[in-house]
TrEMBL record, chains A, B:
Keywords annotated in UniProt: DNA-binding, Transcription, Transcription regulation
Name of the protein in question: LacI family transcriptional regulator
Leader sequence residues: none
Lineage: Bacteria, Bacillati, Actinomycetota, Actinomycetes, Streptosporangiales
A single GO molecular function term of this UniProt record: transcription cis-regulatory region binding
PROSITE patterns: HTH_LACI_1, HTH_LACI_2
């Protein structure tokens, strides 16, 4: 099998290292931003020339438009992402833009390769959904092409961010369960990797908010988190882990509907009924949650609006906007039959 | 919004028209196949030169490898396709190849644009899953790059095909329902469009097989088909249409699990229980079918094996194989709780 190595793309981090300055300084030079000394500008420009780094504007001018938007999806199985893609397609309808997608895969290395594949395909703009790579990688991409990041809460001068108010969403779920009378409420979600960003990602915010609301209600001793990715399989394993506790939780808040489906499988296997034995809630209000045989309490964050907005922001950047914006969707709770009052203690 | 037109890519059909020969003749010349007269070769080569058509080998030599495999997905929401993609990724693991994807969209025009977007991105090979465009378009792509088509049963000299034995799969379902005692068995599936291929596609084969098995059991008067795409929404509408019949069907065979989920929603809304009032079966044996709260009888066609095989065939073609192969998976029935004997007639 062919395994010839491609030459590694020169990154903004390489330029910064070569010039002995910060990546922020390089970004400023690239954007011709205010507050860069002439000496700094010279050093950075020399490093760019020596390394052959092709910043966004120059590269685009060289190649012309491709009328392609690249999208990074973390996982093809999550039924929330097609909602986002539908919104994006709706926004792009009537334009010449086509969407191409890559799947991020299970770890940061795979995600980095997937992002590189998009960049190499010379897309005109890129939408990264819940990326796990470090901020410097995102800024490197954003320095090369119009970039919108969905699901991160950190602002950047180089890219736009679109997210829902994950704090509010998680609060709505935990308060709903507490209001029903639950105290032993467990959470499935957020598994930080060693090379991944630790703050600002949607799953970390949901997990932190869960713990905060529990503490605010004097339930700190009941906090139980199964660290698991937002996949069906991880949700299954996470629920099995939580159900081994004694006493077991009376309610489980899974950080995503897909993980909740896995938890549902674990609950059924354990012979537990929902919500009589254990209440279960998810997040994303996917179409699966609405199926009457599942009827999962969830949080609606309107993926179509997020996708439409991301598309609009990308088109604006392609047309020349360089200032960064942040767009937040206000989520709402959709209570269904999977949550109810806890059974009386035996 | 930018709507500048790209120059249309010269196709194999253009070359054939210009040279006044068939597309098959052009393909033969491109492949240096046996049985082409020198005069024919000259005419085709002149047309290729005049139109600037870049056949696969020449184009690839010009640009070198991109180490990218392009995948056409009909629909991001269908939970069967990630099984295929998982198999493909497994096959490509350890190579430098990355997968980029496009979504085919609702009609042939959208699908054609999506395919063009992949071709324009200069992938090294392309996997088209259940494409709806006419054969000439597929052959046009296959003349330019290594191509594997999944879900079509028609052989081609230019591309490989991977499919399951859809006839056997559909037979297994209909015989299963007849064996349980059902006679009023309805089908949801196959909706031919005016510009689409009418034969050889998996959904047409499943629908035809359903009708054939019904006839073979003397049930031709009971044949009822709701023509609907393999989507949740179409399955929902299809089931509503079927439930308006009097007497209503006692069993529904949806051509795909995703359509069956839509049918399940319609059944629940109508206050009907599964399988007591209506039995329901799908196709694809997706993870959703296995969820115990859904427990859908379905047909397993092992998408991972299909994806791995498609990946292997693409790599072989990239390495130089030009002969065409066909790979068929033998499906099996997975009976679950959604099918049972019909209720005694009132």
């Amino acid at each position: 099998m062919a395994t010839r190595e491609r030459p590694r793309r020169v990154t903004i981090a390489d330029v910064a290292r070569h010039a002995g300055v910060s990546t922020t300084a390089v970004s400023k030079v690239l954007r011709s931003a205010y507050g860069v000394s002439p000496a700094m500008r010279e050093r950075v420009k020399a490093a760019i020339e020596e390394l052959g780094y092709r910043p966004h504007a120059a590269a685009r001018a060289m190649r012309g438009r491709t009328f392609t938007i690249g999208v990074l999806l973390p996982d093809l199985r999550n039924p929330f992402f097609p909602d986002i893609l539908d919104g994006l397609s709706e926004q792009l309808a009537g334009t010449d833009y086509q969407v191409i997608m890559v799947q991020g895969g299970p770890d940061v290395t795979a995600e980095t390769r997937a992002i590189d594949a998009l960049v190499d395909r010379q897309v005109d703009g890129i939408l990264m959904i819940a990326p796990r790579v470090r901020r410097v990688r995102l800024e490197d991409v954003a320095a090369q092409m119009p970039t919108v990041v969905l699901g991160l809460h950190e602002k950047s001068a180089l890219y736009d961010v679109v997210h829902d108010d994950d704090e509010l969403g998680a609060e709505l779920v935990v308060r709903h369960l507490i209001g029903l009378g639950h105290r032993r409420i467990a959470h499935i979600g957020y598994t930080p990797g060693s090379r991944e960003r630790a703050v600002g990602v949607l799953d970390a915010i949901r997990a932190e908010t869960y713990a905060r609301v529990m503490r605010e209600h004097g339930l700190q001793s009941q906090i139980a988190v199964a660290r698991a990715a937002y996949t069906e399989e991880a949700g299954y394993r996470g629920a099995r882990e939580l159900l081994e506790r004694s006493p077991r939780p009376t309610a489980i808040f899974a950080g995503a509907d897909l993980a909740a489906l896995g938890a549902l499988r674990a609950l059924h296997e354990a012979g537990l009924s929902v919500p009589a034995d254990v209440s279960l809630a998810g997040y994303d209000n996917t179409r699966l949650a609405a199926l009457s045989s599942i009827s999962l309490t969830s949080v609606d964050q309107d993926g179509a609006v997020m996708g439409r907005t991301a598309g609009r922001l990308l088109l604006e950047r392609i047309e020349g906007r360089t200032s960064s914006v942040r767009f937040s969707v206000t989520p709402s709770l959709v209570p269904r039959r999977s949550t109810g009052p806890p059974a009386p203690e035996a």
